[in-house]
Design a protein that fits this description.
Chain A is mainly alpha-helical and 209 residues long. Chain A has helices at 44-64, 81-90, 94-123, 131-141, 147-162, 171-189, 192-205; strands at 7-9, 16-18, 28-29, 36-38, 68-72, 75-79, 166-169. In chain B, strand 5 and strand 6 form a beta hairpin. Classes of the chains: A mainly alpha (209), B alpha+beta (209).
Chain lengths: 209, 209
């Protein structure tokens, strides 16, 4: 490796440190501010690849099958991930609708697609001119995908509805919970440091980019 | 404690995106690894954080006084503010859920606003003590930010499910937009704050003019 340098700087307190090898299941902490500098992951690339493939499959049932249905005085109503967005939009709260759309549907989807694209390229050691851009997007979007918060929202909504209506969980809810677990595992398994190292390596070996 | 050199004092800078450590002469130029713009610190961090913070303070008021949702049941329409929703949960003996909603939609936004204000004061007034603790506060603020979206997601689910004409209907209120804006703005404020500014104050007093 030619570009990789042995120095790292703490992102939170700017302390300059020499990079040492960290064993799997260990963390490197900043001696000054205590932030986790580096936490290597076991088989990060292949895990990311398989997790993102599972995620790609789960995206469809989680998005389009009903999550919940309620029954009240003979009337019943089903709700999918999309119907909340549509409902808010119809009531004129388009900004809230867009926010819910982004954080519960668009960003989680992009994260899975990007993780898939990046890990496919890294696994087969293929270079791509947008690899670095994808990786940067992935790092920024992690915070804005809020499936686990949405799940908590579903639970609170269920509690509110439980005493007045008849609630039924749909197949979509199971797919949604699996998607949420996959997404959480993905963010945990992507080893940013390792990925950037590989991206650098591919770039220097590739005369085109 | 022995003073550890900061990257800046050694004439080095750290890429915010990929962690590459580069010479300070590359400032404002694209990073050799990921092509993002290199900076020693997040540009205009304090000004941007202050602007986002002030906007969220202003929006925090309508978010709490206007109704966040209107619930119609059997022809009777009730307006719920954020606090009203929690009180009705307590009345129906669902204390744990009420506590959860209270933490997510009242305590967390309020503590975030206060926390970011304190961080800004810390940097502006050069408080030199307990930098490690302040960094922890910053990390906590970044971590809890997204959980305030709970209320917004819950409303979007209720809006989608409870739409049974005059029998039962939930309509999102104007406070939903304001509250969503507070959550997003405080998240962006936390992201634009550069925690390294806390540590830059740690340098000996005599070096300051």
């Amino acid at each position: 490796m030619t570009v990789t340098n042995a120095l790292i700087a703490c992102p939170e307190c700017d302390t300059l440190l020499a990079l040492k090898n960290v064993a799997i299941r260990h963390q490197a902490l900043c001696p000054r501010c205590g932030v986790v500098l580096y936490q290597p992951r076991n088989k990060s690339i292949i895990y990311t690849l398989s997790l993102s493939m599972t995620g790609l499959i789960l995206l469809f049932p989680a998005n389009f099958l009903p999550l919940l249905s309620i029954k009240l005085l003979g009337n019943s109503q089903e709700g999918t991930l999309w119907s909340g967005v549509i409902g808010l939009f119809q009531e004129g709260l388009w900004s809230v609708a867009v926010l819910v759309l982004l954080s519960s549907i668009v960003f989680p989807t992009i994260i899975i697609v990007l993780s898939f694209l990046i890990s496919v390229h890294l696994y087969w050691r293929r270079s791509h001119q947008h690899l670095a851009v994808w990786m940067r997007c992935l790092q920024h979007l992690e915070e804005w995908a809020m499936l686990e918060v949405y799940m908590l929202g579903i639970i609170v909504a269920c509690v509110k509805l439980a005493d007045t209506t008849e609630l039924k969980f749909g197949l979509g809810l199971y797919a949604f919970v699996s998607l949420l677990v996959i997404n959480a595992l993905l963010t945990q398994n992507v080893d940013n440091h390792l990925f950037w190292q590989h991206i650098t390596k591919l770039r220097t070996h590739d005369p085109i980019s | 404690m022995t003073p550890s050199p900061s990257a800046l004092s050694q004439g080095l800078l750290h890429c915010h995106e990929c962690g590459y450590v580069a010479s300070i002469s590359l400032v404002n130029k694209p990073c050799p690894v990921c092509q993002s713009h290199l900076h020693t610190r997040i540009p205009h961090s304090l000004q941007r954080t202050t602007a986002y913070l002030l906007s969220s303070y202003i929006l925090y008021v309508p978010a709490n006084i206007f109704p966040i949702m209107n619930v119609t049941q059997m022809g009777v329409t009730e307006e719920h503010t954020i606090l009203g929703g929690i009180l009705s949960l307590i009345e129906s003996d669902m204390l744990p859920i009420a506590l959860l909603v209270m933490v997510a939609s009242i305590l967390v936004p309020l503590l975030k606003l206060i926390g970011i204000t304190l961080l800004l004061l810390n940097v502006q007034l050069r408080w030199q003590r307990n930098a490690r603790l302040w960094t922890k506060l910053y990390r906590a603020i970044c971590f809890v930010g997204r959980w305030s979206m709970l209320d917004i997601f819950m409303i979007s689910i209720l809006v989608a499910l409870v739409d049974l004409g005059s029998v039962s209907k939930v309509i999102a209120g104007p406070a939903a937009t304001a509250f969503a804006a507070v959550v997003v703005l405080t998240m962006i404020a936390a992201k634009s704050f550069d925690p390294r500014l806390i540590w830059d104050n740690q340098s000996p007093r005599k070096s300051r003019p």
